[in-house]
Amino acid sequence: MNPEEIHRLVEEYRDGTLSAADARLLAETIRRGAAVAETVHRELAFSGHLGQAVDGADDEAFARSFAERLQAERGGSEFVRAFEKRSSSRLGARTRRVASPRSSAVPFLVAAALALAVVGLVLYTAKQPPVKSVAVQTAPTPPPPEEPKIAPEPPVPTPVPPVRKPEELKTVAPPPVAPVPPAKPEPPPAPVPVPPVEGPKPAPTRTTEVAPSTAVAKIDRVEGEVFVVVEGERKPAHVGQSLPPGVGVSTGLAKSGASLVLSDGTRFSLGADAGVREIAKGPRGTRVALTVGTLVADVAKQPADQPLVFATPHGEARVLGTVLRLVVDSTLTRLEVKEGKVRLTRDGKSVDVGAGQFAVAGAGMSLAARSVSPDEIVLYPQDAKVTGAEWSLQRDPKALMGVVLEAGTTAFKVTDHVQTRPSYATYTFFAPADKEYRLWMRLTSQEKGDPWTRDMVTIEPTRATMNQKSPFFGAAPTTAWVVTGLSTTAGYTWISATGEAGRVEPPLVVKFQETGLQTVRLYVGQPWARVDAIWFSATQKTRPPAKQLPPLSEK
After folding, report:
1. 149-163, 330-344, 422-436: least confident range
2. In this structure, what are the phi and psi dihedrals at residue 59, rounded to the nearest 5 degrees?
3. For residues 367 and 202, what is the distance between their CA atoms, to the nearest angstrom?
4. Which residues share a beta bridge with 354?
5. From its phi and psi, is residue 240 left (phi > 0), alpha (psi between -120 and 50) or beta?
6. Cut 0.90: pTM above it
7. Distance between CA atoms of 377 and 432, rounded to whole angstroms?
């Protein structure tokens, strides 16, 4: 390639119009001859392009610095050699400056980088020692020469750059710079370290071990089978394990349980076959989602605007500080409060449950606070659930509530064991295990003929003990009792073991084996018997008068 062609390519590079193909051609020519490289380097060094592309400085700063150093060294030959060594050695370690939004020379910079990289590599072989630079007055970058001749020295004065015609302008010329007074020599700038390139971060793994500052709870006790549930996957739990938000806890069936402590000191325990779906803590308080099983909590005092909420499938228990017990099964949620007060909510309705009270939330159940250990439990016909066709609800104006349960015909004998009978009426209610209740029933018979064949009804308290065993069932292991004597008096009367005239029998005493929901069933003994009310009383120890009304129920 002849000198004129090399000069044309250098001029196009300086003006920013050099194409990628010509850049590759110029680079190849530079590689082949050191003289060509030296010529290209001098031309680019005088115009400031080499410093701009290699050192990463802006046009104005490098032009001023280059002119000052060139003037101080009387032609700049020594500086050029030193600059060749420094620029070539730093070319691969420096990150090239990204052009400003107003620059339109992106193709120019790409081509320049390619050409200047080759220049640096060729000139690196000179290995001349660096020369200290002296700061002097700066001058703006002169316009490109019209002829291929190269000026021996750049101008030192600071004239105002000449104004070109619009069609001649390729880039915007930098504004003039005010003269800078001479300064003391400065050492060459230290290399700028390139930050290490980080590799791809590994994907996060699921874990239940978290820092205490981010945990919502900690496992304090483990008994039997206890699991931490993460996205449906169960992992064995251990004492001291911290739980992050969104993690659940479940317990096994037999002799299993766990205790958890929240960050505010609230402690709650889970019984066997229990499950907490998640524990969430936010600006509105803490939420514990209990899906099944028994939970007993000792709740620390909560801020008024940040309560602790126990959520179940049937309602919510909002707590500000108390000791409570929650029992959840497939049909209902039962809340018992030992200390403080808890608000139980279902379907927009709420009830405040105080110390010594309980409430039940479930489909078709009234939301009311009742005593945890009631002395009086009264059951009415409308509280019963009828199974089969032997019992039916009938209207009766003489009944306490205007409705009675009436016995129909049955294919079974009164002495048949109740375990095999498919028809009955069921009452469900709460009662503690620490009380002895006398069982009273308000009964009558509608039989118009022989009253002695129409005056029996069978009652069976389940999961309980009785002070007497019914003679109708012999040695069979059952708590069922056949009540007789319904027809001995006209109208309704209170009966316990028997209502037969002239016989004084001690009342039936029932004691439930466990605190919780209890079940009592009625079976047809003989047809046309009517049941008005069933009364479990811890205080009524003798037979009430026929017209005595039971107290307000605490069930």
Report:
1. 149-163
2. -55, -50
3. 52
4. 341
5. left
6. no
7. 11
Q: Find out whether 95 and 172 touch, Cβ atoms under 8 Å.
A: no
The answer to whether the beta carbons of residues 405 and 384 sit under 8 Å apart is: yes
Contact 546, 493 (CB under 8 A): yes
Q: d(Cα 178, Cα 60) in Å, to the nearest integer?
A: 11
Residue among 288, 440, 315 at smallest CA distance from 376? 440
Q: What is the DSSP code string of 126-194?
A: G-PPP--B------PPPPPPSSS---SS---S-PPPPPPPGGG-SSPPPPP---------BPPPPPPPP
Percent of the chain with pLDDT over 90: 39
User: E-strand spans in 396-462?
Assistant: 403-407, 424-431, 437-445, 457-461
CATH topology identical between 217-372 and 377-537: yes
Q: Which sequence spans correspond to the domains of the chain?
A: 3-168, 217-372, 377-537
Instruction: Please state which architecture CATH assigns to domain 217-372.
Output: Sandwich (2.60)
412 exposure class (CB count in 10 Å sphere: 0-12, 13-18, 19+):
middle
217-226 pLDDT, tens digit each: 999 999 999 9
Task: Give the chain's mean pLDDT.
Answer: 75
* Measured distance between the N- and C-terminal CA atoms of the chain, rounded to whole angstroms: 109
CA atoms within 13 A on the CB side of 207: 9
- DSSP helix/strand/coil, 233: strand
Question: Is pLDDT above 60 for 156?
Answer: no
Phi-psi sector, 354: left (phi>0), alpha (psi -120 to 50), beta = beta
Are 386 and 521 spatial neighbours (Cβ–Cβ below 8 Å)?
A: no
In angstroms, rounded to a whole number, what is the distance separating the alpha carbons of residues 340 and 348?
22
Q: Is the dihedral of CA 408, 412, 413, 415 positive or negative?
A: negative
CA dist 417 and 475 (Å) reads: 11
Q: Which of 301, 226, 313 is nearest to 265 (CA)?
A: 301
Location of structure tokens 């909002």: 318
In whole angstroms, give the CA distance from residue 247 to residue 228: 7
> What is the rounded average pLDDT of the residues 370-381?
89
Quick one: angle between helices 106-123 and 34-47, nearest 10? 130
377-537 belongs to CATH 1.20.120.1810? no
Q: How far apart are CA 303 and CA 284, in angstroms?
A: 10
